[in-house]
Amino acid sequence: MSADKVFHSRSEGIPSEGVKDQYADGKAARVWKKYIGDSNQRTQNYKDFLTGLLRKHNCVKVLDVACGTGIDSMMLVDEGFKVVSVDASDKMLKHALKARWEKRKDPRYDEWVIEEASWETLPRDIQSFLPGATFDAVICLGNSFAHLLDDYEDQRTQKMCLENFAKVLKPGGLLFIDHRNYDAMIDSGATPGHSIYYNCKYPVDIKTSVLVVRGKPELVALDYCIGATADGEISEKSEFRLCYYPHKLDKFTVMLDEAFGNKAQHSIYADFKPLDQVENPAYYIHVMQKSL
Predict the structure, then answer these.
(1) pTM score, two decimals?
(2) Whose CA is closest to 32, among 89, 109, 100?
């Protein structure tokens, strides 16, 4: 269902056609960049989890399919990986391109590829600027995949995009993809204020709304309010809304397995720990290993 038919899901200036760019007005992109900080503010648990598994499986060439402002990609470039970064939001990519320019004296950044691409046409888009390319790993983290809503009420677009992620992986390659614990959010109507991904230094309030259509949760809206700071770095209160499809763990697990033809090795983590070690996680992280 298109969320805008029944619920004001977008900040002013965001288009309602095609794959939704929820950062299209530029404001949310700027504030989001402040919220998540730079690569130095990524949590050590996240960095160790991601780079540890990449190295364990001898991954070198990594595709970041939701690079946003480029923070995760920069972390991986700094760690010596060869990174290709794509995003559907040109407003977010502007920040990534600026970051690459600022690092132009670092030879590791000469090979960082940044391009605009859509999940719906990902294999074709990749071929347009890197013919024949496949990747050791694909990452889609930070609750990014949940931005893709369910306009047809059968999740066909989400399934197609997951299949596209699998197509650009080499045999034996890894897909890292996550989602918030929407099962708990739907039950409680609340969102954890902390993030397992970044150490935000600003005061943040997140208001949670759950849209239920014909008895089924169809959308979760998060209203972010980031307060002004005493040092003047954020001069006034900033507010924006982001909307997500509420993926439930069991159904998303099945959908991922099917995207890989039920032949991939599928591991699930809770806040970067084994699933049985965290009772009520903020995030679930899925790691798919494509069959050889």
Answers:
(1) 0.86
(2) 89
Is 42 designated active site?
A: no
pLDDT tens-place string over residues 185-240: 999 999 875 678 876 666 677 899 999 998 999 999 998 887 666 665 656 677 77
Let me know: does 191 contact 180? Beta carbons within 8 Å: yes
SS3 73: helix
Rounded Cα distance between 257 and 196, Å, is 25
Q: Which of 5, 30, 32 lies closest to 222 in space, CA to CA?
A: 32
How far is Cα 134 from Cα 280, in angstroms, rounded to an integer?
A: 36
Token pair in block for residue 189: 């109507």
How far apart (Å, rounded) are the C-alpha atoms in residues 214 and 286?
Answer: 29
User: Is 182 known to be catalytic?
Assistant: no
Distance CA 249, CA 88 (A): 25
Q: What are the phi and psi torsion angles at 54 (to 5°)?
A: -60, -45
For residue 95, indicate whether it is catalytic. no
Residues 103-137 have pLDDT tens digits of: 999 999 999 999 999 999 999 999 999 999 999 99
Q: Is 198 a catalytic residue?
A: yes
